Amino acid sequence: MISTKPEEAGQKSSWLTLNESQELLVQLTDIYPQTTICIDALDEVEHGIRVQLLKSLKQVVERSKSLVKIFATTRMDTDILLQFAMFPKIELHPDDNVSDINQFVETKVQSTIDDELLLHGIVPSELKVEICNALCERSKGM
Questions:
Q1: What is the pLDDT of residue 24?
Q2: pLDDT of 106 strictly over 80
Q3: Measured distance CA(37)–CA(134) in Å, rounded
Q4: Which residues contact 122 (CB under 8 A, 6 or more apart)?
Q5: Number of helices (H) and strands (E), helices first, in the chain?
Q6: Average pLDDT value for the chain
């Protein structure tokens, strides 16, 4: 017997609309006591799409029966700040982790020297300091 249901006949799925995606997210977040949605480089999303995305995420947070947290890496553009103004946030600035970055760079440079991967392990201390300073200065907190 041949099925008449599109799903059983192998119909391809279609793209979800923004509202369908939002509804699905609300339903999924309601399953768990807490959900964290992670978004990297939010500021790099095209402005019009970003506004729609932020409004939808705001709706998910407000409508979910469970706790929903948004973790986003972004430059703090005005539209992003406005959409999340009512929610608590933790802001980190590039200067907040300078000492961690400096320590990481110094450790990595030293291990690269020790493994003889940088100038066959023959690196004068002045050059090592210069390399570390250049890398840390150019990291801009990243």
A1: 95
A2: yes
A3: 35
A4: none
A5: 5, 2
A6: 87
pLDDT of residue 2 exceeding 70: no
Burial 52-86 (b: 16+ CB within 10 A, else e): ebbebbbebbeebeeebebebebeeeeebeebbee
| Burial class of residue 51, CB neighbours in 10 A (0-12, 13-18, 19+) | middle
Q: Residue type at 128?
A: K
Instruction: Answer whether 79's CB lies under 8 Å from 51's CB.
Output: yes
140, two tokens: 């801009």
Q: Which residues contact 58 (CB under 8 A, 6 or more apart)?
A: 83, 84
Query: Is residue 114 within 8 Å of residue 123, measured between CB atoms?
Result: no
Q: Look up the pTM and report it.
A: 0.61
